[in-house]
Amino acid sequence: MTEIHELSDILANQIAAGEVIERPGSVVKELVENALDAQATQIDILVEDAGIKSIRVIDDGAGITNDQVQRAFLRHATSKISSRQDLFRVHSLGFRGEALPSIASVADVVLKTAVMDAKEGTKIHYRGGELVSQTGTNARQGTDILVKDLFFNTPARLKYLKSQATELAQIVDVINRLAMSYTKVAFHLVHNGKELLQTAGNGNLQQVIASVYGLSQAKKMVAVNISDNDFAISGYVSLPELTRSNRSYISILINGRFVKNYNLSKAIVKGYGSKLMVGRFPIAVLQISMDPLLVDVNVHPQKHEVRLSKEVQLMALIEEMIVKCFTNQNLIPDAYDNYMHGKINDQIVPETDDAQFMAQLQKISGTSTNHVNPNQGINDDNLASAIDGTSRHLQFQNEATHASQEQTSVHPIMITDATDLKTKPVQEFAAKYRLEDNIQPFTEVSTPVAADEMQLDWNDEATTIDAPVKTGFPTLEYIGQMHGTFLFAQAEDGFYIIDQHAAQERIKYEYFREEIGKIGLDSQRLLVPIVLTYPKVDILKIQAHEDELQAVGLHLETFGDDALIVREHPAWFEKGQEESTIREMIDWLLRDGNITTKAFREKTTIMMSCKRSIKANWSLNDYEARGLLTQLSQATNPYNCPHGRPVLVSFTNIDMEKMFKRIQDSHESWIEYDNHPF
After folding, report:
1. In the predicted model, what is the mean pLDDT of residues 663-674?
2. Ranges for the MutL C-terminal dimerisation domain (predicted)?
């Protein structure tokens, strides 16, 4: 049996480093927190190669005296606590005394430090947990610590680091949260000589938010505050119109410490109520002050999670604060901003004109092409005119066809006995319709169409004519519409109710699934480029996923330190929704991180099909409704929308008869049944 023995200090520190120091961002977090605990007012963070090559943190804090510098690198050596009671009243960010020895055990560390009025400072050098040298140095108050060659002696940990862009994004996120926690401290973050963040340290939280998220975002943040006997909460929350696709933009700061707490985040979202769209989350920065006795920070190696004694009370207080904030708040979006945004979108014009397509469009619609843009999707403003124009054309075409049929002499086929079935007219009739068993109901145009021609469907979208897929879908006969939302239809087997939005969403989904697979064929050049502003941490993440964006035809260029510029976009984007579509696509990358190209295209397809489908409370005439049912019958899967909701429900003939008691319970006699007055 192997003997039990005590581990060496170096090995013990390396094991501890596995819990405390996971990545370069962990090193930055521990060193900056030490500087904050030392009452620093100015902190400079200089990073090279996302911290893998070097991390340098310079502060103007209290510093360390010469006789205690070496003691700071001992495991569990700390100045933050000294007794068991102190563990329940932690006022500092750090208190375990594990950070410096853990970092020194897996890196090359050089620390320079001096206290106020000292004649000489101290310079100490550790590598792999072993002391290399200790000498005197110039006396500048504060601490200057340089960490190089991180994980040089633990190659397995170095191997599992993410890309430099991902690791740098983590560092930026750490500094962003600390800057919002300590607004009276001036932070300066530099990567490879390039400034990523700088705050003034004047105590203005909204200015820090502007530095992190951008000025335009900060202007849409509303100040909030509330307090009771146990908690004091202050900060900023975004207007309901400013949302994100995940909770990562919610910063909860308890006694200056950023924590992740699902219940508190849920309370923030709950305070908005129905003002937030489903699946969207606000931007929020809340600073919560409480008695240290009410929070236990010693439950997570990196102190990201805490245990709260009165969590339910705090949740209720946060929800109440958000509700009161928006009770008398004007939540109507700025009309001028929307107007200016609309003017910019109106200036987006196609780079070239397709004369052949425009001529075909004019031929089909029977109207001037000035009224329809071939690259323009159907939105609330132009859907009515587009549908109306197409409907008038179909109605005119049917009337003309009907008039033509009246002028044509028709010779009926007379069958009097079995021998008439072998006559030539009957054989020709049977042969003709034997080949047309795949014809779908409500087909408006019965004449053959060449394979290279395009057909304009009922919502003025140009799509190729595909052979219908046999799916066992019933042959529906349109009856009517209810509340501009549901279509009624009947078939041989019963009665059907169709959700018109879900139906067209399925149709559009299958169309865009094909179109997005043809990336690179068509793109729309913008007369006025779209500029997207994001925090630097998000810019780094977006740059790490350029391949996925380009795979769906979206090319982004860096524009300054915190902005991206879009000069062209895929032609299948809906006019007027270019920027919102691009932002939503980028949100997926920021939320999912490791999303594959296939999954990204799938999400894009679902989004476009939803955006470009008719909505509820939109009346359709008979031709439009029948055209929709025809297209639905040709879908590969006509039963569910891309989100999984049912497209239609049915009542069989038996169900209908049961509901109206035309089929009675078995205990009722036939005599009584026959006497019913129907």
Report:
1. 53
2. 478-620
